[in-house]
């Protein structure tokens, strides 16, 4: 995986560029990932790099930056995301989705547009945080939990989520079907 770092005079990262995406300022959201070309619906965008895997008990030992860029693997295991993946911002109306380490366009993405994901797809920790996405259906806050996503979207996103969430989804629906 190849990228170029562009630094500020103080040697902080100004932006990171991959072949078809760039990481740069996204105003209130911090840094974001932006398209350097048009992407069609379903088109591959990039493949994320594997990060360090840690156990839940080690979360308090993480730096603030690492603690803000975690992917849940299962109920006790997390992975620290690497750039550019760690700069993907949440949207309540995302334009991309990951399958494993690969990111794909959920809908057409125009050159210059920010590439966003729905953080809830692989989440179950129930953290509540402020959302700055500005989409039409944004409530201004979000709870990190797959099961807070509307039922119709859960079905759409289910093939893309992690194993423990799929298992819980099927367990809940099996139980619900038995009650009816």
Any overview of this molecule?
The chain has helices at residues 64-68, 151-157, 163-179, and strands at residues 4-7, 13-17, 21-25, 31-35, 44-47, 53-55, 70-74, 77-80, 89-90, 96-99, 102-105, 114-117, 128-130, 141-143. 16% of the residues lie in helices and 31% in strands. It is α+β, with helices and mostly antiparallel strands and 180 residues long. The chain has a single domain (4-179), classed as SET domain (Beta-clip-like). It contains 3 helices and 14 strands.
Mind sketching the topology for me?
Blueprint: E1 4-7, E2 13-17, E3 21-25, E4 31-35, E5 44-47, E6 53-55, H1 64-68, E7 70-74, E8 77-80, E9 89-90, E10 96-99, E11 102-105, E12 114-117, E13 128-130, E14 141-143, H2 151-157, H3 163-179
- Distance between the ends: 50 Å
In the sheet with the most strands, the strands line up as 1-2-3-4-12-9
Order of helices and strands: EEEEEEHEEEEEEEEHH
Give a quick account of the main beta sheet: strands, pairing sense, barrel closure.
6 strands, mixed
| Percent range of helical residues | 10-25%
> Approximately what portion of the residues adopt beta-strand conformation?
25-35%
Structural class: alpha+beta
- Care to count the β-strands? 14
Number of helical regions: 3
């Amino acid at each position: 995986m190849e990228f170029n770092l562009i630094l500020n005079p103080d040697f902080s990262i100004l932006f990171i560029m991959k072949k078809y995406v760039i990481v740069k300022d996204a105003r209130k959201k911090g840094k974001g990932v932006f398209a350097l070309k048009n992407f069609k619906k379903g088109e591959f965008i990039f493949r994320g790099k594997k990060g360090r895997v840690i156990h839940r008990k080690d979360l308090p030992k993480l730096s603030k930056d690492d603690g803000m860029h975690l992917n849940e693997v299962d109920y006790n295991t997390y992975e620290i995301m690497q750039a550019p993946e760690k700069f993907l911002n949440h949207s309540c109306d995302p334009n991309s989705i990951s399958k494993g380490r690969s990111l794909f366009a959920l809908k057409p993405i125009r050159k210059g547009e920010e590439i966003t994901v729905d953080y809830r797809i692989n989440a179950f920790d129930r953290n509540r945080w402020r959302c700055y996405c500005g989409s039409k259906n944004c409530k201004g806050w979000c709870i990190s939990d797959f099961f807070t996503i509307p039922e119709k979207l859960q079905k759409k996103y289910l093939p893309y989520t992690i194993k423990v969430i799929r298992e819980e989804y099927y367990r809940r629906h099996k139980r619900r079907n038995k009650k009816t």
